[in-house]
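[READ THE FOLD]
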Amino acid sequence: MKILSIESSCDETAAAVVEDGREVLSSIVASQVEEHKLYGGVVPEIASRRHAECITEVVNEALKSADTTLDEIDAIAVTHAPGLIGALLVGVNFAKGLSLATQKPLVPVHHLRSHIAANYISHKELKPPFLCLVVSGGHSHIVMVESYTKMRIIGRTRDDAAGEAFDKAARTMGIPYPGGIMLDKIAEKGNDSAFTLPRPKVDDAPYDFSFSGLKTAVINIIHNMEQKGEEIPVEDVCASFRKAVVSCLSTNFIKAAKDLSVTTLVTAGGVSANSLLRKELTRECEENGFSLYMPDIKLCGDNAAMVGSQGYYEYLSGNVASLDLNATATLPIDYRE
C-alpha cells in the first residue's frame, strides 16, 4: 500500500511516498531555517506563507522521486495536529484538495505519533508495545505505546518542553537559531561540571518533568555574569545545562521503565538527536538490560516519511477523515477518534 504523506506543522514543508508503513520510496523536505534564523525563531505568519508557496512543488517532487503517479497512490496522509495553526492549515487543505480530486482516502495523522513512527522506518523489526520518550521543541512526554494507534501518557512536562528550554538558553547566550542543535555541538567542548544546576522534580508525579526552573537558573547565571562584566564561558554553560536537561529526561524515563516492567524503550522527536541524550540512554539501557531504539538522525526532525508510516497504521485502524477535517493547534497524543 502506497501512501502520499504531507507535513507542514512548523517550518518544514515536506512530502513523502511510503509503502506499507516501513519502506520510504521518497522523502522531500523544504526547510525555512535560514529565513527564520534572521528572527531568532519561527515566525508563524512567514512559515504559513512559505508552505503555501512551495507545497505543490514539494509534493510533485516526492511523487517524481518515488517514480509514482497519483493514480498509484492508495491514500493521502496529512499532519492535522498539533502545531502552528496557519502552517497546519496549508497542509490539511492541500491534502483535502488532493483527496477530493483523486477520490483517495484522507488519513489524519497526529504529529507526535508520527515522530514515534519514525522508528518503524529506522527499525523494521520494532513493534508495540514499548515505552517511548517523546522530546521536541514543544513537547516532552513519556508514552506507553500499547499498539500502533493506542497510546497512554505516563509522564509529561508541567511547563516548558526540553527543546524549548534548550532554545531559550541558547538565545540568551547569543547562539543563533536553531539554538538547541548549536548548543549541543558547543557543549561537546565544555566542562559539564563547571556550573551546578537544579534537577527539578514534580511532587507526587515521579515521571513528570519541569524545565522552567532549570531554564531560569541558567539564564540567571548568564545575566549575573553579564552584570558583573564577566566573560561568559559559553562552552561550560552549554555543557552544564545540557547535562542537567538530559539527566532529568533519562532519570524519569528509566524509572518509568523499571516501575512498569517494560524492557523495550524508544525515543522520538527532534531532541532525540541530542548526542548526550543518545549516549546516556544507551549506557543506561545496557546497564539495565533494556532494548533501546532511536530513530536515525535524519528522521528526528520534522519530515513526511514518518507521517506516511503512522498514516499507514491509522488507515488500517479505520482512521479515515471526511472533507470537513480541520487543523488543530493542540491535541493530546492519546486522543480517540
Q: What stands out?
A: The chain has two domains: 2-116+299-316, 128-297. The chain has a mean pLDDT of 96. The first helix runs from residue 33 to 37. The domain at 128-297 is CATH 3.30.420.40 (Nucleotidyltransferase; domain 5).
